[in-house]
Amino acid sequence: MSTVNSGGDRRPISSLLQNNNVLGFLFMLPAAVFLVCFLTYPLGLGVWLGFTDTRIGRDGIFIGLENYQFLMDDSVFWLSVFNTILYTFVASVLKFALGLWLALLLNQHLPFKSFFRAIVLLPWVVPTVLSALAFWWIYDSQFSIVSWSLIELGLINEPINFLGDPVNARISVIIANVWRGIPFVAISLLAGLQTIPASLQEAASLDGATSWQRFRYVTLPMLTPIIAVVMTFSVLFTFTDFQLIYVLTKGGPVNATHLMATLSFQRGIPGGQLGEGAAIAVAMVPFLLGAIMFSFFGLQRRKWQQGGQD
Amino acid sequence: MTIKRRDFLAASATVAGAAGFGIRPSFAQAEPAYKPESGASLRLLRWTPFVKGDEEAWLANTKKFTDATGVQVRIDKESWEDIRPKSAVAANVGSGPDLVMCWFDDAHQYPDKLVDLTELANYLGNKYGGWYDGVKGYASRGDTFIAMPLAAIGNAVVYRDSHVKAAGFSEFPKDTAGLLELCKAMKAKGTPAGFPHGKAVGDGNNYAHWLLWSHGGKMVDESGKVTINSPETLASINYAKQLYATFIPGTESWQDINNNRAFLAGQVSLIANGVSVYYAAKNDPKLAEIVKDIRSTNFPIGPVGKSVELHQTSSLLLFKHTKYPEAAKAYIKFMMEADQMNAWIQGSSAYCCQPLKAFAKNPIWTADPIHAPYARASETLRPNGYAGPLGYASAATMADYVLVDMYAAAVTGQMSAEDAMKEAERRANRYYRV
Questions:
Q1: Which chain B residues contact residue A139 at CB under 8 A?
Q2: Which residues 403-432 on chain B approach chain A with CB closer than 8 angstroms?
Q3: pTM: predicted TM-score of the whole model, two decimal places
């Protein structure tokens, strides 16, 4: 009896394991469990926290959109939104322009090519906190090397107020971010440049194209897919930047450099309002989705990539 | 049949609370005896010490406790800004360290997660001349101690004597008007003062609260109603603007460390800081000149007529999730008793000010004239969010730099004094609603 049963059971199981769909599902299961546990669940929890009045040390209750209504009236929050967009936009444009330029330079036949390529990566390799500390000294209101040099040269009389003046502070943190972000853009675009067949460039040259025309009509179109990916990541990294600001200014002076990420932390953890902190973090999602959509549908829409006409 | 853990805890808290009420401190209190559970071990999370002697004394005291009782105590250190989140997470998830050396109003953020220490605190208070009101406020609700007051980390004015004298002042001014005159004179001599208007968690808040309180302003009234928009606050902002005009440029970006650096480099001659700046100079042979010239004093008294400051405060939290509450209480008691407490205060070289009045006689306070103003920290200390209740709103208002931003916005001219005050009122109201 039992043998008959087990035999009857075995057949469907073994036939199930022969089924490609089932097998595929089983192979994907570990990865899916991993993603659900470590990505979906924390994200979902964060979104949920934004709808509650949870504080540190106290479970919250569901309060609907109250956190968001509350943020609507908060000028500090709107200032942080403005700062974040400004910071992301300016820094990303600069990183793209300078990164592309650097990539084009590195793509030339230079002596010690590999050495330079390795050196360029340094700012990206150094932990953010470390480079932020270095910039903190560079921007120090009393001991800045920049101020000191300019004073010694007789160009200015007193130290530059790098992080104390709102405009200066914004420029300073953007410069620090650009410095840190260029290598990522440059090296990725360099990889893209090297996939462009030399024959195309040669053909264009033979047709009498100037170097600008070769760049505009050969290099740039061939590079567009990788630009889209690289800039998506670059924008995401910049938009969610935290460490640099936290070390350099903690959001000061008077919140002029507070980003949404730093404000979310300040309110959520030291301030104890997990709910509101989560709401600020969730409020970043639409902007991030917008950036992703733009790069995917804006930069990658070219039909020639699929063999059609642009 | 189903007594849930939570019910049990609530019931035991009630019993403990009732016991606390039952034993009033009016008559001599029996010494409570705590017998550590067998096989007990404890974990304490503390802030990374600012002076080495603090840690050495604390560890030595702990070792004495372990030798006497067999209870192992593991001590973990975290940077002082990380204590608040770590402690809150421990409270939230109900595991982690048994004891935490916390800051400011942390105990009031999750009082229901903390073991009632009233019996022990009343015993210690009676034995050692009573608790200072300020530190007691941070650790108690009504008559119940939800934490054990541990220390005030004093803040005081530190200045270069020769520069003050060169500015024409034979002694340091005692009132706010005098300080302004001094700072003006020092700026004229090229040896300016500097107090942080940036997001300096410790020094920035200390300075901003002194500005407010010395002029009689307060964030909220006794009922928790926001009263920052007041003539007193306005006076304090106007005073701050005048004082700011005499500072070294750039103080609006200063974080906690900047004033130490600038002072030790000889760039500023008058700052407010913990005693650590003095020891930093003393431990550096190159700064011997500065060490001889350093003097310290309490912040001058403003129109309010008495010395009031924020300082930093630390309390010991004992979580209900501890498996060994008796061992933990025995440990706290041991560490607070005279032998250990005196050794610790001495070891921390004037950084930690006693929570109990009897320890004001500790020889450390007279060991060096620089220490004297720091001895008064617990006495002049006024809790954050004065005059309202401590708790979530007071902690969040400080963590959001509402007061620091108010002064910074006004002194740098980004807002008029009135607008800065209104903005601070609006921001504080977000936390003190309901």
A1: 253
A2: 405, 408-409, 412, 414, 423, 427, 430
A3: 0.85
